[in-house]
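Re: folding output
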Amino acid sequence: MISQAGLAAPLDLSKLPSYQQLSSKLRDMPLVKANGNVYGVPFMWGPNPLIYDTSAFPKAPDSWASLWDPKLQNKISVWDDLSTVYMAAQVLGYDKPDPSHLYNLSDKELDAVKNKLLALKPNIRKIWSTGGELTNLFENHEVVVAMGWPLMTNQLRAAKFSVGETIPKENTTGWIDHLMITAGSDNKDLAYKFLEYMIEAQTQKKVTDVTGYAPANAQAAQFMTPEQKKNLHLDKVDEYQKRIYFWQNVSRRARYNEIWNEVKAAQ
């Protein structure tokens, strides 16, 4: 991790007046903390939701397991990321009762995940790696459902595409983008000014307008329309965050990557 590798500078939070406005849940995540220091400030966050074409699904799919439906042969896309491994593990129930177990799977569990994903291969049209790639797959009607980001939902809505977004009953994983200052920075004072600007409520709202991601500074909501707040779930943010298993450190990342690469390489 960056914070443990000495690549980021510990932050003096007194130089970031807006830090206390940031979501306490996001501030308390352990990924950017080490030895009693904080190394990153939450910037944007979001889930890895199930995105679907509403013309193919009049009703939102209620489970990640729906991706394995034989009727969806060559009609789905999955992300070229370990999040797809986590999703299959959720379908197998490995997040119960402890969601953090998704990031600490045993070899036996990883083998079961691998077999589950291999069974999904006939339904996969393409494995996407960039946001624009998945958006194009939907717009070209090559796929009808996928794990994605709120960015794609936002782009498809802007293009007047019939898109829906949901978090299935198993819940989903999610991410928090953090801003850090490199340990070797020659101008840390300027860096602090940049970080403060980026986490101020008005700046956060502007970033949200472009990306569709949720702001770490909940006070950004005061500059939004009721529709924007609802689309970002800021009207019920605590309830919504409970459905997101934010990424944690994966100590056996090499083994997870090995499993995922074997799935991708399989014919």
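--- second protein (sequence, then structure) ---
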Amino acid sequence: MNETFFGFLDRQMMDSDIHAINYGAILYNKKGGATVRINFDVWQLRADSVIIFFPGDVVKWEQMDDDFQPQVIRYSSEILRSASLNIEHAVYELLRADRLCGYKELVQMVVESMFRIIEFYFTTEHYSLTDRIVQLHLQAFFLGYYDYLQAHPRADNRDKSTQRVEELFNRFMELLENEYQKGHEVNYYAGRMNITRKYLGIIVHSKTGISPKRIIDEYLILQLKLALRTTKRSLKQISNDFNFSDQSALTRYFRTHAGISPQQYRLK
């Protein structure tokens, strides 16, 4: 069974509520526009723009034009992991930080070609290696996009203090995305960043207007909801996965922040 999807992203697939995703995707918009919030950053999509989504992203579609109907290549986290094996960590992180590709030349010469090639394999019968084909194209795209960004850097007019806040906030979000299962408290992330809890609070509040604890709790609940909806793991297994002391602790935490029990949520 293929782990990839290719086609138009219809309105029913664009959940208007904030949600976490467990897949990666490249979205290519040919006309119209939209606004999407990803991990507290807001991105404006216009005609001939491309945006990259990564597993674990927290997404909220905030506005869409009537004629906005982009194409998407969607792939599993396993395929993304395989495609990233030979890509240096710095490449991957740069792409996450600069995920909106608005370079007309790159879109026309690379992205359009990639979408046409992948469309061929998805719309022609008897091809059984589409996952592998997508994996190889992803690797080529990520490396090419990185190389293009290095040759055409965006102007950065921020002062050093603003840059430092951005760097620390991005580091906090990176740690949260990778370690949310074992880090439920602010002290955990402050320690991992070698800064004080108070300083982390100042950084996060200046960027988002809310506390780091609230961000941690909201992100953790979204990931718990994703696990409850997309896996068949028992509550005991999920409580172990997410580093809760036992199933009762998970239930109390979930009920406090989601308003219902995990069992009730799973049956919705």
